[in-house]
Amino acid sequence: MQNQNSSPIALSEQIADQLPQHIAIIMDGNGRWAKAQGKPRVFGHKNGVTAVRKAISTSARLGIKAVTLFAFSSENWRRPEEEVGLLMELFISVLSTEVKKLHKNNLRLRIIGDKSRFSERLQQKIEHAEKLTETNTGMVINIAANYGGKWDILEATKSIARKVANGELDADALTEELMTDHLTMADLPEVDLMIRTSGECRISNFMLWQMAYAELYFTPEFWPDFNEESLIEAVTWFVNRERRFGCTGEQIKTLMESQ
Ligand code: IPE
Ligand code: IPE
Ligand code: MG
Fold it and tell me: Do residues 25 and 196 make contact, with C-beta atoms less than 8 angstroms apart?
């Protein structure tokens, strides 16, 4: 973030009110981006880090509350051992170099996912980064690593089931809110804009519960090419969507006119 502009992006009041609060991004296409240049896949992952920095600084400048970036899915362990190893190394080195800058910018960093499968060294880096930034009051950045939407729901279900079994909770008293409270990111607004790069139109087991009503934005751009303009384009597209939440378009118009 150091060499990037960190001044807020000026928005009209009307647009500022309609911005997404929580953006989730499936950062896809690193491998194809590298291959198109005759380079190894890891070259794409390294250049993907530059795009991560841009997405974070642009989101913060727009005044977004939370950004969740899908960095490694619970299924990505199926990739060749060498690629997984290089991704883990990259993760460690990026955490080492970026955390101080994030902290200086008052940003809060969290890693969501099953961290137990990571090396001891990586787990320590994660713990340090989360501790250092936990009281910061700016944008929350969640890095989803060894994360799966099904895993998240399963873990929540297990902890609820334990409470029911020991009599702490009545199964009939279970509500959507209570379920949400047991999921990761319970303290954040639900995702309202989900972006996936590289032209793939699937969710790949990302945040399933939290994206129930998200607007889904798919762009053919590969992740390393995704820059400030790309994000602003996605956010502009979002601002122009009519979110209905089950109502009719007419009901929404009447509601907006009455505000
Ligand atoms: C996304 O890019 C990064 C990770 C999943 C770690 P990919 O590595 O999936 O790139 P493609 O989809 O093969 O091009
Ligand atoms: C999804 O990307 C996970 C991340 C971006 C980290 P993949 O490229 O692994 O997804 P699939 O397997 O093609 O759906
Ligand atoms: Mg991919």
Answer: yes
* Substitution candidate for ligand 1 out of 69, 198, 222 with most atoms within 8 A of CB: 198
User: Quick check: 103 and 138 in contact, CB under 8 A?
Assistant: no
H-assigned helices in the chain? 13-18, 30-35, 41-62, 81-104, 120-133, 149-165, 176-181, 228-239, 249-257
Q: How far is the CA of 243 from the centre of ligand 2 (A)?
A: 27
28 is catalytic: yes
pLDDT tens by residue, 127-170:
999 999 999 999 999 999 999 999 999 999 999 999 999 999 99
Spelled out in words, what is the top-level CATH class assigned to the domain 20-258? alpha beta
State in Å: Cα 232 to ligand 2 middle. Answer: 23
124-138 pLDDT tens trace: 999 999 999 999 999
| pTM of the predicted structure, to 2 decimals | 0.93
Q: Is the CB of 227 under 6 A from ligand 2?
A: no
Residue 246 to residue 148: CA distance in whole angstroms: 27
User: Which one of the listed residues 17, 47, 76, 205 is annotated catalytic?
Assistant: 76
- Write down the domain spans for the chain: 20-258
Cα–Cα distance for residue pair 16/35, rounded to 1 Å: 39
State if residue 205 touches ligand 2 by the CB under 6 angstroms criterion: no
